[in-house]
Amino acid sequence: MELSEAIRGRYSVRKFKEEQIEEDVMMEILSVLEHSPTALNYQPEKVYRLKSAEAMEKINSASKCIYGAPEVLMICYDETECWRNPMIRGHKSGITDASIAADEIMLKAWELGVGTCFVGLFSDTELQRLFNIPEYIHPVGLILIGYPADDCRPLAKMHNVSRPLEEMVFTL
């Protein structure tokens, strides 16, 4: 699959098969973390793989948007390991670095026939409490991950609908 095909074809999967992702497939997906760009290559992203029945019960209690995914990747960053831009007050690269990693995970998964959905509806402090994550590790997003159900389709009102480039790109 060409990258442009993955970018145009990928959609947020909200209905999954119960089937678990094979371990070699998941490791191939997660291997993109080794090449994901980060500010000054500090690599502050941390990924918690939620797979056990206990972990899935906890994540289902923390977010209404798990949609029966067999696994969830909690994408985080370590604030003690991220770059700080001295020219921007309070800047930490962690959110950006973790978001880039999340996008690359989702595109690699799609290339391998695995569906994903990025979820941002959760309380970061609740996730830290539920999963005993230190305060300096910050959840940025959840990636639901699994094989799409046979009858899964993109939401028509959102898929392939975007603003024209003229509203997003400005040449100065």
Write down the overall mean pLDDT: 95
Radius of gyration: 17 Å
Task: Please report the distance between the alpha carbons of the first and last residues.
Answer: 35 Å
Model regions low in confidence, pLDDT < 50 over at least 5 residues: none
DSSP E strands, number? 4
Biggest sheet strand line-up:
1-2-4-3
Portion in helices = 25-40%
Q: How many helices?
A: 5
* Main sheet specs: 4 strands, antiparallel
What would the principal axes of the Cα set say about the shape?
A: globular
The structure class reads alpha+beta
How would you sum up this structure, described in words?
It is built from five helices and four strands; from the N terminus they run ααβαβαβαβ. It is of the alpha+beta class. Helix 2 crosses helix 4 (about 95-110). It is globular and about 50 Å long. The mean pLDDT is about 95.
List the helices and strands and how they pair.
Elements: H1 3-9, H2 23-30, E1 45-50, H3 53-62, E2 71-78, H4 94-111, E3 115-119, H5 124-130, E4 137-146
Helix pairs in contact: 2-4
In short:
This protein has 172 residues and is an alpha+beta fold. Helix content is 29%, strand content 17%.
